[in-house]
Amino acid sequence: MKTIEVVAGVIRDGEKFFATQRGYGEFKDGWEFPGGKLEPGETPEEALVRELKEELAIDILVKDFICTVEYDYPKFHLTMHCFYCEIQRGTPQLLEHENAKWLSLAELNSVNFLPADVEVVKKIKREF
């Protein structure tokens, strides 16, 4: 089974967390924390800065590491490195996603997160 290595940013603003809804592909309409694939030679932090600039037109500061999720989807294995992030410049623009929401801790279960991201939500809820 093919392994895909990605990064995800849990963007925080006070007690709110930014989630995005996929607008394309096999998992269209599923909710996730934004990010994407690592390119050769990139650190996870560098990939996250690049991906969030490409997807949301924002500059971020990568903060604390949350966890690495290992998840088997039907067609591939996902390794996802997750970090808390803070917006340094810009307002998120949906360049690749169809929707986005700022969610409180209590609202995190109000959207249909993709399975790997559900693991991140559980970790966040344990920390707060």
Automatic annotation (TrEMBL):
PROSITE patterns: NUDIX
Top-rank taxon: Bacteria
Keyword Hydrolase annotated: yes
Catalytic activity line of the entry: 8-oxo-GTP + H2O = 8-oxo-GMP + diphosphate + H(+); 8-oxo-dGTP + H2O = 8-oxo-dGMP + diphosphate + H(+)
Residue stretches making up the Nudix hydrolase domain: 1-126
Cofactor(s) needed for function: Mg(2+)
Keywords: DNA damage, DNA repair, DNA replication, Hydrolase, Magnesium, Metal-binding, Mutator protein
Major enzyme class: hydrolase
Entry's EC annotation: 3.6.1.55
Family of the protein in this entry: Belongs to the Nudix hydrolase family.
Record-given protein name: 8-oxo-dGTP diphosphatase
Lineage summary: Bacteria, Pseudomonadati, Fibrobacterota, Fibrobacteria, Fibrobacterales
